[in-house]
Amino acid sequence: MQHKGARRIDRRPVTRALTAAACALALCGPAAQETRALKDLVPGGWLIGVAINQNQSDERDTAAVDLITRQFNAISPENLLKFESVHRQPDGFTFEAQDRYVAFGQQRGMAVIGHTLVWHSQTPAWVWAGSDGGLADRATMLERMRVHIATVVGRYKGRIRGWDVVNEALNDDGTLRDSPWRRGIGDDYIAKAFEFAREADPGAELYYNDFNLATRPAKRAGAIRIVKELQQRGLRIDAVGEQGHWRLNTPTVAEIDQTITELRATGVKVMITELDVNLLPPTAPPAPGQPREPAANPYVDGLPDDVQQALARCYANAFRVFLKHRDDITRVTFWGVSDGDSWLNRGRMNYPLLWDRQRQPKAAFEEVTKVLMTKS
Ligand code: G3I
Predict the structure, then answer these.
(1) Which of 101, 184, 225, 376 could disulfide-link to 57, CB 3.0 to 4.6 Å?
(2) Does 255 qualify as catalytic in the annotation?
(3) What domains, with CATH codes, occur in the chain?
């Protein structure tokens, strides 16, 4: 008995040392974390960003705050600067949490991004409403747009590096989405938004942002038309953001490559603004009160290793293309810190990002850092 006990006591420091070594190798444990930081590995001048939620910008989610601070040099607000967050009522703006978001980035020397000024979603109905119950007339809607942009962009003048001025204005076929903004103002609502943003902060970068630009050539052509029209009007536009809400096998490497080449040919820079990789099958939500089909949520007990490795390859392939275009790209931003934070869960278990639910780096993080280390 005594002998066994003595052996147990003797082994404890060894076990601890072995565990620590294993942890360091596997990059686990609160002290081990990652041995490398994305922000130190990206090409000089690149921004590597992450969308953060209010728990993070308010510094309540301290594990995420540490990770964001260690790894990234740019932040985007996942929801805080959308119209409905900042300007819910016609005569009232809300800036408390928004000011904290901007301060969060400034205190850490990060580029602070504004998302987004003019969008058909997350915008309160009053913005488009006329007095007769229909749509407001052009002059009224333009004035509401101008006041919104002047107030929000003006408040953060010199502190927000760049704004997604117009978000998701296109249909997949490249035509303009029939949003209330367009119906109320006309096709030039996009140009007016860029004009107002320029007036509010002449020093801020201004972006057009949309999804599916890599998978839908017609939509990409629509984005290029928007850029050219803004340029013909003499308006400032600095970059186009392809959101980058991608899947394992789509877009292909060739499509990403082609997209960056075509967008860059307009003269503006390219950004990947909302990067994540959806691993779940596309499905409609279950009918109210009905359980979800198990096939719609296949990874509730964890992600199989082959899928984990496929995700890592997918990210590595994408970053190889980004590096090829290092002089065309100015920023790559992930849409969320870790898998548990992602909008792609929505009642299911998704694994779209580089950090897992325990905030530990995944194989995808390792592969991305390896690719970034190959840059000369
Ligand atoms: O804030 C309310 C809360 O008060 C309420 O109790 C709760 C109940 O559902 O909802 C909360 O609002 C949610 C909000 O996120 C904040 O968490 C909304 O329901 C939810 O719809 C909203 O989702 C956001 C989505 O945009 C809305 O379109 C996601 O977080 C955000 O990641 C997502 O981001 C968009 C980009 O802005 C544009 N590109 C696509 C991207 C993904 O959809």
Answers:
(1) 101
(2) no
(3) 34-278+295-373 (3.20.20.80)
